[in-house]
Amino acid sequence: KPLADLLLRRWNETHETSELLPLCQAKLNAGDPQFVADHAQQLVATIKSQEAMGIAVTGQMRSHAWRACLELLDGNADLFPEGRLPVGLRRARIVCEQNLGMLTAALGDAEALATESQEAADLERLFDLRVRAGNIKGALGPALTLLKNPGTRPETLVRMGWILRFEDQAFLSEALRLA
User: Fold this and answer.
1) What is the average pLDDT score of the chain?
2) R_g (Cα) of the chain, nearest Å
């Protein structure tokens, strides 16, 4: 906190662009994501780096500034190779879409990411989104993949088994056995 206060005083005096990045990082570390969310556009527009983008998105996510975060992500993909957001920022995009009620967009992005990464967290998010959309049969696909994934947490297996208990009794039995 003292570092963040010192950097803020300096920045308020000079408004030097080069001081905004360390100030925002210090504010995040001090537990003040709102400052970062309030300055996210300015940070990314002036610094134009992947690091600035990561800090800005983190501040917006922690402040629940979903719409601003989504706009920042959509408007600055060109900072990354081939204009493609890295996996962590693609996950952030899905969370923003989900929190804004953009279920169709969140589902499409989650499907693409889960197919590409095959990571348990991405498959679990896809499962949850399909359930939320009322597509229980569609949720079975990622659930079966998670069933075979050694990185799947036992509580996830039990939860999926409970949700799918009427759709697939064999899945429930296997999920409980593995949990």
Assistant:
1) 93
2) 20
